[in-house]
Amino acid sequence: MTVLDMAQMRLREVNATLQAAAKARGNDGFEVINPRGSHAVAVGLDGPLSVTVRGSTGYYCAGMNKAATVTVAGSAGPGVAENMMSGMVVVEGDASQYAGATGRGGMLVVRGNAASRCGISMKGIDIVVQGNIGHMSAFMAQKGNLVVLGDAGDALGDSLYEARLFVRGCVASLGTDCVEKEMRAEHLDLLSGLLAKAGVDADPASFRRYGSARKLYHFDIDNAAAY
Amino acid sequence: MSERPKTLPRQSATFSAEVNAEIRRAAATGIYDIRGGGAKRRVPHFDDLLFLGASISRYPLEGYREACGTSVTLGGRHASRPIELAIPITIAGMSFGSLSGQAKEALGRGATLAGTSTTTGDGGMTEEERGHSERLVYQYLPSRYGMNPDDLRRADAIEIVVGQGAKPGGGGMLLGQKINERVAGMRDLPQGIDQRSACRHPDWTGPDDLEIKILELREVTGWEKPIYVKIGGARPYYDTALAVKAGADVVVLDGMQGGTAATQDVFIEHVGQPTLACIRPAVRALQELGLHREVQLVVSGGIRTGADVAKALALGADAVSIGTAALIALGDNDPKWEAEYQAMGTTAGAYDDWHEGRDPAGITTQDPALAARLDPVAAGRRLRNYLNVLTLECQTIARACGKSHVHNLEPEDLCALTVEAAAMAGVPLAGTDWIPGRGGY
């Protein structure tokens, strides 16, 4: 395990080291200490590297991740794992707004709560939040799965496309064109797999499923009041 | 018996035939008009400026003999690999999806032959475009359709799109008829549905966040790529200053004549400022920050001729960008398709229903049969020719003003034909030394 101390190293050195190691593959892993809320830590990794960040991070930690496993042993600022392509990002504390924004693959796990707009415009990522999520989460979410063990704030899934939302707690309100849907066996299987991958022990049958009513898929003047 | 004189029928200037037709269309359909292109209304523009040329106190350079440079370097402020262009004219961002694959290829071919850059658009980067573009700018848009770090790294520069001149504050809608399997796959959405392009970025808000977003993009790409920030002509002074403060290497400023693939006509015609009105405030912001020429300004929106290029540069731009004119050079709105335009109820030069995907020229379509009408090699050569003409025209004017590089053109080389243009461009009204708004009156 190689330790990178952000009290001693500049962000550029830290990221360049991690990016090179991810490209090279076959490293034992890295520990980043003293992040002190730095932005853009461990971004753009492209390879099966294991990185643990000891402390809390600022914006965009693990942004655009490919194949790497990044663990934040603390809380993460806005946009953690934004546009992630693959791999795994785990936040042991809470995540600020836009967690997993536009993510196209891989899995983001938040052990605590996630703030507003979690999974905004998600495009294939799987997000599992063990606590609650804030308002406008999964706004314009296109693809992938958002699993919430706690409660969801207002306007969940507003203008949703094909992403699937699973919530165990209460939903303050659903956004435009988001509706509750039947939880069929295939969804229970899917959810069971997602929970297992995230290392979460929960009964899939205790969740409710939400998805798009698909009424906004083609512009219709009769739907103008919905916007 | 003589007839009593009659009053001639008089059309209303306010309720013109065009206005009345739109009222009737709205009443029949209940929906606003959507179209492509930029503002069609007459606004103060480069036509309202003239170059003074040489005189006893300014002597010219010899045409066809003395050199007049046209090269420009974009992005040297922070990027380790700035873009070197042979000419100060670039191709603006236009998406694969709104344009056919052939059109995108032709843009790349033409730009490369002319020694300049082209730009992706909403929907991501295609292999054809990357393969045929020696210098390719990758647009980073609110929708993030097709966004991935590999394409960021394959790009020669990154353009963060905050707004565009046709619709500052607006997003977009690519209608289902243009969403074929390939376009849908690139955008992670089902085939055939209307695809909304968001009007604001999903993971940052405001200039402080933008600074952090730029940091992330630089960290992902190793601080190699120039980062452009594209703004619509809304508040050019403040937006330029904020983009520079956030760390932009290049500011792309798009006035209201700049085109779009599809937006409400009311938006295109009534939101944003004319290109001419935007340039001097943006230049002033750069000058006040001490970064004019260190941060480059690229101006777009209604550039058609080498004279337009020269005037934009004289007002302080480092380069210009063309979209609509490039499409016309490829073959858009060509009178040879007149019969088909007539069948759609329009005419060559006025066709703007680009969102419907029925373009006879094969440019703004995803219909394979229509798209096949455009030969990307021949269209690329036409674009190259056109870019060459713009450059030659710009050089001709610059030499006449005694400039050995087109960047040496300056506001003192210009006068204005109208009070409005004089005020916007900050140059004297022709025949006077009066610049409206300067000197207290």
Helix percentage range of chain B: 25-40%
What's the number of domains of chain A? 1
Tally of extended strands of chain B?
16
What's the rounded overall pLDDT mean of chain B? 95
- Going across the biggest sheet of chain B, name each strand in turn: 5-15-14-12-11-8-7-6
Count of all domains of chain B:
1
Strand order of the largest sheet of chain A: 1-2-3-4-5-6-7-8-9-11-10
Can you offer a commentary on this structure?
The complex is a heterodimer of chains A (227) and B (441). Chain A is an alpha/beta fold and 227 residues long. The N and C termini of chain A lie far apart (52 Å). Chain A has helices spanning 11-24, 185-198, and strands at residues 2-5, 30-33, 50-54, 69-73, 88-91, 107-110, 123-129, 143-148, 164-167, 178-181, 208-212. The longest helix of chain A is centred in the N-terminal third of the chain and has 14 residues, at 11-24. In chain A, strands 1-2-3-4-5-6-7-8-9-11-10 form an eleven-stranded mixed sheet, covered by helices on one side. In chain A, 12% of the residues lie in helices and 23% in strands. Chain A has one domain: Glutamate synthase, alpha subunit, C-terminal domain (Pectate Lyase C-like, 3 Solenoid). Chain B has 441 residues and is of the alpha/beta class. Chain B has a single domain (34-425), classed as TIM Barrel, CATH 3.20.20. Chain B has 15 helices and 16 strands. Chain B has helices spanning 17-29, 101-114, 127-132, 149-154, 181-187, 206-220, 236-245, 265-270, 275-288, 306-314, 324-330, 338-343, 368-371, 376-400, 419-425; strands at 34-35, 49-51, 72-74, 83-85, 89-91, 118-119, 136-140, 157-161, 172-174, 195-197, 227-232, 250-254, 263-264, 296-300, 319-322, 414-416. In chain B, the strands form five sheets. An eight-stranded parallel sheet of chain B has the order 5-15-14-12-11-8-7-6. In chain B, strands 1-13 form a two-stranded antiparallel ribbon. The mean pLDDT of chain B is 95. Chain A binds chain B through residues 11-12, 15-16, 19, 39-40, 43-44, 46, 58-60, 63-64, 66, 78-79, 82-83, 85, 98, 101-102, 104, 117, 120-121, 123-124, 139-140, 142-143, 159, 161-162, 217-219, 221, and chain B through 29-31, 143-144, 147-149, 152, 173, 175-176, 187-190, 193-194, 196, 198, 202-204, 209, 212-213, 215-216, 219-223.
